[in-house]
Structures are given as C-alpha cells and as structure tokens.
TrEMBL record:
Its main location: membrane. Keywords: Coiled coil, Kinase, Membrane, Phosphoprotein, Transferase, Transmembrane, Transmembrane helix, Two-component regulatory system. The keyword Transferase applies. Residues 460-495 are annotated as: Disordered. Residues 184-237 form the HAMP domain. It catalyses: ATP + protein L-histidine = ADP + protein N-phospho-L-histidine. Residues 485-495 have a biased composition (Polar residues). This is histidine kinase. It comes from Marinobacter zhejiangensis. Residues 254-290 form a coiled coil.
Amino acid sequence: MKLISQLRTSTFQLALLYMVVFATSVFLLLAFIYWRTAGFMAAQTDETIEAEIAGLAEQYRGRGINGLITIIRERVAREPNAKSLYLVTTEDYMKLAGNLTAWPEGSQSQSGWINFTLDDRVGWVGQPRLARARIFEVQGGLRLLVGRDIDDLAALKRVIEIAINWGMGITLGLALLGGFMISRSTTRRIEVINNTSRKIMNGHLSQRIPTRGTGDDFDQLAENLNQMLDRIVYLMEGIRHVSDSIAHDLRTPLTRLRNQLENTLMSVDNDEAREQAGRAVAEADQLLATFNALLRIARLETRGNTADMQPVSLGVLASDACELYEAVAEDKSQSFEQALDNEAVIEGDRDLLFQMVSNLIDNAIKYTPEHGDIRVAVYGRDGNTVFEVSDSGIGIPDEEKENVFQRFYRVGKSRSLPGNGLGLSLVSAVAEIHQGTIELSDRNPGAEQPGLTVRVVLPTYQPGSRRLKSAPARPEPEGAAGSGDTSSPLSRQQA
C-alpha cells in the first residue's frame, strides 16, 4: 500500500515524465546509430557487389560469354569458400558455372536485387546463411547472378539490435529506479512536514518542522513555516492573555452583580419589582454561562489532545448522564429510551466526555416538543465506538448542518428558545480532542418534524496504544451546555 501511495506522488510522476523524455532521447540516439551503422555496412556490401559486376562486365565485353564463364570458374576454383557468389545458367536455369548448385528462390526487385537463403552452395555444410545478389540477363538468353554472403552482416545487425534492446531496458530500469529514489527522498521530507503539521493541528503548538541545514528549498520552506508558527503562537498567546484578563476583570464583577441582584430579589416586597429582579438575575446567569462557555471552548481548542486520557466506558458514562436528565424529560412527558453498551471503552477525559454527552442529551430534550421521544445509544461500528442521540424534535435543515458547530450560530427555528449557540461548539471541540468525528442526519427525512440524529464516532480503546497521560488544569466544571444554553438542568431548576 505504501508503494502504491509512493507511485501516486507528484514527485514520482514528474520523475516518470523525465524518464519518458530521457528514454525517448536514448532510443532516438541508438536508432540513429543503428541506422548509420547497418546502413553503412549494407551500402558497403552493395558497392562490393557492384564492383564485382563491373569487373565481370569488362571481361564480358573483351572475351564474350565464354570468357565470362571461364573467369567465373577460375574464381570459384581459386577461392571455393569466398564470400562472393556466382551463377551462370541457361534460359531454363541449367547451371553453366558458379558456386551455387541451383537458381535461388526469392523476390526480385525492379533493379534486379534479390535476398535469399544460402543453403545450396557448392561444398557448403552447415546452417543456411543469408545472401544478397543482383541478376542480369546476358546475350543469348543466359542468366547471370553475382552476390555475396551477408550472414555475418545480418549477425552483426542482430547483435546491435540486442544491444539496443538491452540498452533501452537498462535505461528504463535505471530511470525508474532513479525516479523512485528521488521521489522517495522528496516524499520523506514532505511527510515530515505533513506529520509535524498534523501534530500542530492536534494542538501541539510547540512542534516545529526540522531542517537539515542544507539551505535547500525544503529547508527554506520549513524555516518560513516555523516563523509563521512562531507568529501564530505569539498571537494566540496574546489572545489567551486577553481572555485571562477578561476572566479576571469581568467575571468577578459579574458574579458580584448577580449576587446583589439575587439579594435584591430576596429583599423586595413589591411583586413587580421582584419579577424585574428575577429577570435581571436570569440575564446575569445567562451572561455568566456564555462567558464561561467561551473560555472553556477556547481552552479546549488551544490545548488540543493534551487531555487526561484514561480508559472510559462510554456506555456507563452515558448512563450516568441519562440518569441526570431523565427527570427533565419526564417534566415534558417525553419517552427516554436507552440502548447502551457498557463494554464499549474509549480512551478519553471523563469530565470532557461527560460534558459532550450531557450537551447532546440536553439539546435533544430542549428541541423536542412535549410527548416526543428521545433515544440514547452507545454501540460499536467498524472498529469505532459511536455515541448516538436521536430525537423527534424540530431538526436542522440540511443547508445549516455545516454551520451549527460555529460559535453563536443558531438555527432559525430555535432562535425563539433560550440559549447562546455555544453548546455544539463545545461538543465539536471535545470530539476533536478525542480524534472523533460528528455526523448529523434527519431521523425522519421529509417529515414536518424531521427530528435529528447526532452520532459522535470515537476510536475504540486499544490496550498498549495509550496517548498523553497528563494535562494542564481542566476548565471549570460548569454544567453541561446545549447549543442554546450553557447551564446545567439542575441550575435551571434552582433558578
């Protein structure tokens, strides 16, 4: 699988393109060498045959046909194993002289040239050989063939062709190997950048991309990215400092204001004044809850997956949350069904997971009308553990499902209900810390009340693959928050 991914890299594809261009260049070069070499040797053979023909023609003009036959017989007798081939026959192909036993078979060109297999030469014993000759018609209907044995030339051509094929094969092999090695080296450095980037995205902001000190393009890219990360961390530290300052400067006065309003509520006798003071206390509670939720989300997003990870039974945790909210559901006459697998164990921060589970259950109760039904389930799926909350409430339109995890975003149907739109942002931050994903779907698609099914898919705990064990201080244990409310059901009942 790793090899396949290596072959899909742009670096390897670029190396492959270079290999094709390089191999084409080598092929054209070798083809030119072959054409020049083989063509030169073939032309030299034809020139030798033409020279033989010119000499015999001169003898024929001076001594006639009998002199020509005599010359051919003398040459054959003097060099019986020579490369030169001669044959003189009558019109009906009866041999008169030469070192061929019979007229060869082959396709003759218009200029009289013929290529044939030489297996009937006088005194020849062995494998058939290739030959090339030219044919003439002589006075009196006689036929004359003058040629040469070109088997050595053909063998040399075969050697050159084999060398070209091997050369092309070796060239392609070396180019492919070189492309793979270059791609592998480049991919390793890119993978280092990708791995470091993933760690940074998971919250390890102290990570930096290593450099080799070579000053090449990758080192320059790494240095620029590291400087950018330093700048981002500096800006985030500034934001965190502002948040801490707000927490120090505003939370205490807001709490005092809320307490003074509550004291006023307890001391006034006028019903109208008591009602106004009660609304002011509720507004102060909402403001404090919003403020605390914002700080909690910011801390979760900046610390990444550095939570206190321990094996947690998600089914048992969900059961505890359901027990807390059953009374709230009963107040609205809602059915509350549970299907919890207590054997489903994940690795996570119990407090953060409890906040996430509570937020989703609280949302389901809040946005489901009276006499509706809610189902909470924990089960395994494809090696993961799924926490699912399904309700018969107002649902979320498809075009808004991607936006509900943004801070302060509220679906149009829910704007009339109390809340601040931070609950699902907190759920998203907790899921991301635990390397989970969130799925939203309609429970009853097409219905007037489509309902909503929320699934949080988390990696199942695998012994021996523990993540980080220690963590900075957890956020304040405020009550679980829904997407429109950040206070717990108990605090609402007390209010």
